[in-house]
Amino acid sequence: MIDDTIAAIATPLGEGALAVIRLSGNDAFAIAGRCFRPIGSSSKIPSEATTHTLHYGNIIDAEERVVDEVLLAVMRAPRTFTREDTVEITCHGGMVASQAVLQTVLAAGARSALPGEFTRRAFLNGRIDLAQAEAVSDVIHARTDLALAAANEQLAGKLSQRIGQLRDDLMNVLAHLEAHIDFPDEDIVPDTQVQLIGRLESALDFIDQLLATANEGRILRRGIRAAIIGRPNAGKSSLLNQLLGHDRAIVTPTAGTTRDTIEETANIRGIPVVFIDTAGLREAADAIEAEGIRRSYDSMASAELILHVLDATE
Length: 314
Ligand SMILES: Nc1nc2c(ncn2[C@@H]2O[C@H](COP(=O)(O)OP(=O)(O)O)[C@@H](O)[C@H]2O)c(=O)[nH]1
Ligand SMILES: [Mg+2]
What we know:
- By secondary structure, the chain is α/β, with parallel strands linked by helices.
- The chain is built from 9 helices and 11 strands.
- The strands form 2 sheets. Strands 3-4-5-6-2-1-7 form a 7-stranded mixed β-sheet. Strands 9-10-8-11 form a 4-stranded mixed β-sheet, sandwiched between helices.
């Protein structure tokens, strides 16, 4: 049983018009009630509010000083992401305002949430399964439309459904085998050996298909690492700049211009491709270039794709 109430800023830290502070747990309404003063007749304190309603008012600290002017959303369990009572406070954005609201809520009795803890509670309370919990992170970190679409499908339970189906099929085969072993003399007609083998083979096919899409999923999530290598002055940095569509790397006619490795992600037909521009392979002129060249070899070793640039005039 999870009995404490957690709170965190749900929006990225930085300057923005608004920020959202989320509270989840048994005491979410009591804690929010301690630091929220509704304004106007239609605004209520959280414990008296109807579920899924929005309330205008001020966040005030223990000395009754106004911390920020906010909108507060009340969502009652179990119709929430965590299946716990949840309050979302929309306050002013920026480093100071949102932190001040969070500190007030923590002082009123909430505990600072650990990274991923709201999703963890959603999982522990049976709102989502592990495949969907993973998908929540993929939606947040998606770098292309295609990656987002794949993550959304998984979040909607497509992968969970397929795994559930596979489990049912295998349990069925297992039940037949066990019935045959445990009650050989009874009048149970088990599947024939041929049928059982057929069903196991289709389960294997199904697993192979899932594994193939797992690889696609990994590529969509992490992107493909593509190292650009070749001799100094072959045009590696020029190629990187062309692929990115802007002048990311310095290009000069002097060999040995690129010393450190440069990584940039481009969206190529929906797949995030991480291009790595390298120092180029030759005898190093100095210790700095030697280190750059060593890193070029490291990049090659970790890349899924190597773009070898050659000077056509040589
Ligand atoms: N003629 C010609 N010059 C190029 C081409 N690509 C790059 N360069 C020039 O070659 C020089 C070295 O290019 P750079 O991209 O810095 O090569 P890197 O050392 O492999 O990164 C620069 O002066 C570029 O302008 C190309 O396709 N044709
Ligand atoms: Mg270069």
